[in-house]
Protein backbone atom coordinates (compact mmCIF):
# COMPACT_ATOMS: atom_id res chain seq x y z
CA UNK A 1 0.00 0.00 0.00
CA UNK A 2 1.33 3.48 -0.85
CA UNK A 3 1.49 6.15 1.87
CA UNK A 4 -1.71 8.12 2.32
CA UNK A 5 0.23 11.24 1.28
CA UNK A 6 3.42 11.62 -0.74
CA UNK A 7 5.14 14.93 -1.47
CA UNK A 8 7.52 14.52 -4.42
CA UNK A 9 10.12 17.19 -5.30
CA UNK A 10 7.62 19.99 -4.71
CA UNK A 11 8.60 23.57 -5.53
CA UNK A 12 6.56 26.76 -5.64
CA UNK A 13 7.35 30.27 -6.90
CA UNK A 14 5.31 33.49 -6.95
CA UNK A 15 5.66 36.66 -8.98
CA UNK A 16 6.12 39.73 -6.77
CA UNK A 17 6.51 43.12 -8.45
CA UNK A 18 7.62 41.42 -11.62
CA UNK A 19 10.23 39.31 -9.81
CA UNK A 20 10.01 35.54 -9.45
CA UNK A 21 10.28 34.58 -5.77
CA UNK A 22 10.82 30.95 -4.80
CA UNK A 23 8.92 29.90 -1.67
CA UNK A 24 9.26 26.08 -1.58
CA UNK A 25 12.37 24.29 -2.77
CA UNK A 26 12.19 20.61 -3.70
CA UNK A 27 10.10 19.46 -0.71
CA UNK A 28 9.79 15.68 -0.31
CA UNK A 29 8.31 13.49 2.45
CA UNK A 30 5.64 10.82 3.02
CA UNK A 31 2.80 10.58 5.53
CA UNK A 32 1.47 7.19 6.59
CA UNK A 33 -2.15 6.57 7.53
CA UNK A 34 -2.95 7.38 11.18
CA UNK A 35 0.18 9.49 11.64
CA UNK A 36 0.12 12.85 13.36
CA UNK A 37 2.64 14.99 11.50
CA UNK A 38 3.73 18.50 12.43
CA UNK A 39 5.42 20.70 9.84
CA UNK A 40 7.61 23.15 11.69
CA UNK A 41 9.39 26.24 10.45
CA UNK A 42 9.90 29.93 11.06
CA UNK A 43 7.11 32.38 10.27
CA UNK A 44 7.04 33.23 6.57
CA UNK A 45 8.99 30.19 5.39
CA UNK A 46 6.15 28.83 3.22
CA UNK A 47 4.43 26.37 5.57
CA UNK A 48 0.91 27.62 4.83
CA UNK A 49 1.59 27.59 1.09
CA UNK A 50 2.67 23.96 1.36
CA UNK A 51 -0.50 23.06 3.28
CA UNK A 52 -2.70 24.80 0.69
CA UNK A 53 -1.02 22.81 -2.08
CA UNK A 54 -1.63 19.58 -0.14
CA UNK A 55 -5.29 20.61 0.26
CA UNK A 56 -5.56 21.18 -3.49
CA UNK A 57 -6.25 24.90 -3.05
CA UNK A 58 -3.07 25.95 -4.88
CA UNK A 59 -0.92 24.39 -7.59
CA UNK A 60 2.79 23.75 -7.28
CA UNK A 61 5.29 25.12 -9.78
CA UNK A 62 6.90 21.70 -10.09
CA UNK A 63 6.78 18.31 -8.41
CA UNK A 64 3.60 16.58 -7.25
CA UNK A 65 1.42 15.62 -4.31
CA UNK A 66 0.01 12.09 -4.30
CA UNK A 67 -2.95 10.89 -2.25
CA UNK A 68 -2.78 7.08 -1.97
CA UNK A 69 -0.62 7.08 -5.08
CA UNK A 70 -2.90 9.32 -7.17
CA UNK A 71 -1.97 12.94 -8.02
CA UNK A 72 -4.04 15.58 -6.22
CA UNK A 73 -5.80 17.84 -8.68
CA UNK A 74 -8.02 20.35 -6.93
CA UNK A 75 -9.70 20.40 -3.52
CA UNK A 76 -11.76 17.45 -2.31
CA UNK A 77 -13.26 17.75 1.21
CA UNK A 78 -13.79 13.99 1.43
CA UNK A 79 -10.01 13.64 1.06
CA UNK A 80 -8.88 16.50 3.27
CA UNK A 81 -10.36 19.49 5.09
CA UNK A 82 -8.56 22.47 6.63
CA UNK A 83 -8.76 24.28 9.94
CA UNK A 84 -7.47 27.86 9.88
CA UNK A 85 -5.96 30.00 12.61
CA UNK A 86 -8.56 32.74 11.97
CA UNK A 87 -11.56 30.38 12.59
CA UNK A 88 -13.27 31.27 9.23
CA UNK A 89 -16.81 30.85 10.56
CA UNK A 90 -19.85 32.42 8.89
CA UNK A 91 -21.14 35.03 11.39
CA UNK A 92 -24.76 34.87 10.21
CA UNK A 93 -24.99 31.10 10.83
CA UNK A 94 -25.44 29.37 14.17
CA UNK A 95 -22.90 26.86 15.46
CA UNK A 96 -24.97 23.95 14.13
CA UNK A 97 -25.52 25.65 10.78
CA UNK A 98 -21.79 26.32 10.43
CA UNK A 99 -21.06 22.65 11.11
CA UNK A 100 -23.72 21.45 8.66
CA UNK A 101 -22.75 23.81 5.84
CA UNK A 102 -19.96 21.68 4.38
CA UNK A 103 -22.18 18.61 4.40
CA UNK A 104 -24.96 20.57 2.71
CA UNK A 105 -22.59 21.66 -0.06
CA UNK A 106 -21.60 18.02 -0.56
CA UNK A 107 -25.28 17.09 -0.95
CA UNK A 108 -25.51 14.97 2.18
CA UNK A 109 -29.16 14.28 3.06
CA UNK A 110 -30.65 16.50 5.76
CA UNK A 111 -31.32 13.61 8.18
CA UNK A 112 -27.75 12.31 7.96
CA UNK A 113 -26.42 15.86 8.08
CA UNK A 114 -28.28 16.53 11.30
CA UNK A 115 -27.10 13.27 12.88
CA UNK A 116 -23.45 13.89 11.97
CA UNK A 117 -23.62 17.46 13.24
CA UNK A 118 -25.08 16.23 16.54
CA UNK A 119 -22.27 13.68 16.85
CA UNK A 120 -19.53 16.25 16.31
CA UNK A 121 -21.24 18.85 18.48
CA UNK A 122 -21.01 16.34 21.31
CA UNK A 123 -17.47 15.27 20.42
CA UNK A 124 -16.23 18.87 20.50
CA UNK A 125 -18.24 19.79 23.63
CA UNK A 126 -20.50 22.22 21.77
CA UNK A 127 -23.94 20.80 22.54
CA UNK A 128 -24.94 23.75 24.74
CA UNK A 129 -23.90 26.23 22.05
CA UNK A 130 -25.54 24.81 18.92
CA UNK A 131 -27.94 27.75 18.55
CA UNK A 132 -25.30 30.39 19.37
CA UNK A 133 -23.70 32.65 16.78
CA UNK A 134 -19.90 33.05 16.40
CA UNK A 135 -20.00 36.55 17.91
CA UNK A 136 -21.27 34.98 21.15
CA UNK A 137 -18.35 32.54 21.44
CA UNK A 138 -14.84 32.77 22.85
CA UNK A 139 -11.86 32.14 20.58
CA UNK A 140 -11.49 28.62 21.93
CA UNK A 141 -15.14 27.81 21.29
CA UNK A 142 -14.93 29.24 17.76
CA UNK A 143 -12.02 26.93 17.02
CA UNK A 144 -13.98 23.98 18.39
CA UNK A 145 -16.68 24.83 15.85
CA UNK A 146 -14.03 24.91 13.12
CA UNK A 147 -12.77 21.48 14.19
CA UNK A 148 -16.29 20.04 14.31
CA UNK A 149 -17.12 21.47 10.88
CA UNK A 150 -13.95 20.03 9.35
CA UNK A 151 -14.51 16.58 10.87
CA UNK A 152 -18.23 16.42 10.08
CA UNK A 153 -17.61 15.77 6.36
CA UNK A 154 -15.48 12.81 7.54
CA UNK A 155 -12.36 13.45 5.46
CA UNK A 156 -9.47 11.00 5.43
CA UNK A 157 -7.00 13.73 6.44
CA UNK A 158 -7.34 16.77 8.68
CA UNK A 159 -5.07 19.70 7.79
CA UNK A 160 -4.48 22.40 10.43
CA UNK A 161 -2.78 25.74 9.83
CA UNK A 162 -1.48 26.98 13.20
CA UNK A 163 -4.90 26.29 14.75
CA UNK A 164 -3.99 27.44 18.28
CA UNK A 165 -1.94 30.56 17.51
CA UNK A 166 -4.83 32.99 18.13
CA UNK A 167 -5.67 31.54 21.55
CA UNK A 168 -4.40 32.24 25.05
CA UNK A 169 -1.89 29.73 26.45
CA UNK A 170 -4.30 27.80 28.69
CA UNK A 171 -7.02 27.49 26.04
CA UNK A 172 -4.45 26.46 23.43
CA UNK A 173 -3.09 23.67 25.63
CA UNK A 174 -6.59 22.39 26.40
CA UNK A 175 -7.41 22.28 22.69
CA UNK A 176 -4.12 20.53 21.86
CA UNK A 177 -5.03 17.75 24.27
CA UNK A 178 -8.59 17.59 22.91
CA UNK A 179 -7.35 17.32 19.31
CA UNK A 180 -5.04 14.47 20.31
CA UNK A 181 -7.96 12.67 21.95
CA UNK A 182 -9.96 13.04 18.73
CA UNK A 183 -7.03 11.72 16.70
CA UNK A 184 -6.77 8.67 18.97
CA UNK A 185 -10.52 7.96 18.79
CA UNK A 186 -10.85 4.94 16.50
CA UNK A 187 -14.58 5.54 16.01
CA UNK A 188 -13.85 8.71 14.01
CA UNK A 189 -13.37 8.39 10.25
CA UNK A 190 -10.54 10.93 10.12
CA UNK A 191 -7.33 9.42 11.46
CA UNK A 192 -4.43 11.21 9.72
CA UNK A 193 -3.59 14.70 10.99
CA UNK A 194 -1.15 17.17 9.43
CA UNK A 195 -0.49 20.38 11.36
CA UNK A 196 1.53 23.52 10.63
CA UNK A 197 3.23 25.27 13.54
CA UNK A 198 6.17 27.55 14.30
CA UNK A 199 6.30 26.45 17.96
CA UNK A 200 8.88 23.74 18.68
CA UNK A 201 7.34 22.53 21.96
CA UNK A 202 3.87 22.34 20.37
CA UNK A 203 5.22 20.19 17.54
CA UNK A 204 7.10 17.82 19.87
CA UNK A 205 4.10 17.58 22.22
CA UNK A 206 1.66 16.59 19.46
CA UNK A 207 3.48 14.81 16.65
CA UNK A 208 4.60 11.31 15.76
CA UNK A 209 7.09 12.98 13.42
CA UNK A 210 8.20 16.56 12.93
CA UNK A 211 9.10 17.75 9.43
CA UNK A 212 11.45 20.73 9.86
CA UNK A 213 11.66 23.35 7.12
CA UNK A 214 14.42 25.87 6.52
CA UNK A 215 13.84 29.58 6.02
CA UNK A 216 12.50 30.67 2.61
CA UNK A 217 12.82 29.13 0.11
CA UNK A 218 11.83 26.26 2.37
CA UNK A 219 13.45 22.88 2.06
CA UNK A 220 13.24 19.88 4.39
CA UNK A 221 16.12 20.01 6.85
CA UNK A 222 14.85 17.40 9.28
CA UNK A 223 12.40 14.50 9.53
CA UNK A 224 12.46 13.70 13.22
CA UNK A 225 10.52 10.86 14.88
CA UNK A 226 9.20 11.76 18.34
CA UNK A 227 9.81 8.55 20.28
CA UNK A 228 8.24 9.77 23.52
CA UNK A 229 5.39 7.70 25.01
CA UNK A 230 1.89 9.16 24.92
CA UNK A 231 0.21 10.87 26.66
CA UNK A 232 2.87 13.57 27.08
CA UNK A 233 1.03 15.59 29.71
CA UNK A 234 4.05 15.71 32.04
CA UNK A 235 6.49 16.78 29.34
CA UNK A 236 7.85 19.55 31.62
CA UNK A 237 9.48 16.77 33.67
CA UNK A 238 10.76 14.71 30.73
CA UNK A 239 14.40 15.41 29.78
CA UNK A 240 14.01 13.54 26.47
CA UNK A 241 11.28 16.02 25.46
CA UNK A 242 13.62 18.97 25.83
CA UNK A 243 16.50 17.11 24.20
CA UNK A 244 14.41 16.79 21.04
CA UNK A 245 13.32 20.45 21.30
CA UNK A 246 16.95 21.55 21.61
CA UNK A 247 17.93 19.38 18.63
CA UNK A 248 15.24 20.98 16.48
CA UNK A 249 16.10 24.48 17.69
CA UNK A 250 19.74 23.93 16.76
CA UNK A 251 18.74 22.56 13.35
CA UNK A 252 16.65 25.65 12.59
CA UNK A 253 19.28 28.10 13.88
CA UNK A 254 21.92 26.58 11.55
CA UNK A 255 19.64 26.86 8.49
From TrEMBL:
Instruction: Specify the domain of life of the species encoding this protein.
Output: Archaea
Species assigned in the record: Fermentimicrarchaeum limneticum
Gene Ontology MF annotations:
ATP binding; ATP hydrolysis activity
Boundaries of each ABC transporter domain copy? 5-240
Task: Please identify the protein, giving its name as recorded.
Answer: ABC-type nitrate/sulfonate/bicarbonate transport system, ATPase component
PROSITE patterns from the entry? ABC_TRANSPORTER_1, ABC_TRANSPORTER_2
- Keywords for this entry? ATP-binding, Nucleotide-binding, Transport
Amino acid sequence: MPPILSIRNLSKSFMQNGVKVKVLNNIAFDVEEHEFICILGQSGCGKSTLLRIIAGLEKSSSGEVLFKGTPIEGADPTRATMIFQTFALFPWLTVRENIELGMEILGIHKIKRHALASHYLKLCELEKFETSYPSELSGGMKQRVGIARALAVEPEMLLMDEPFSSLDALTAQTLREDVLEIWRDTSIATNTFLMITHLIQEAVFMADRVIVLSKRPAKVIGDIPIDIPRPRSDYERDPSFFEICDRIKMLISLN
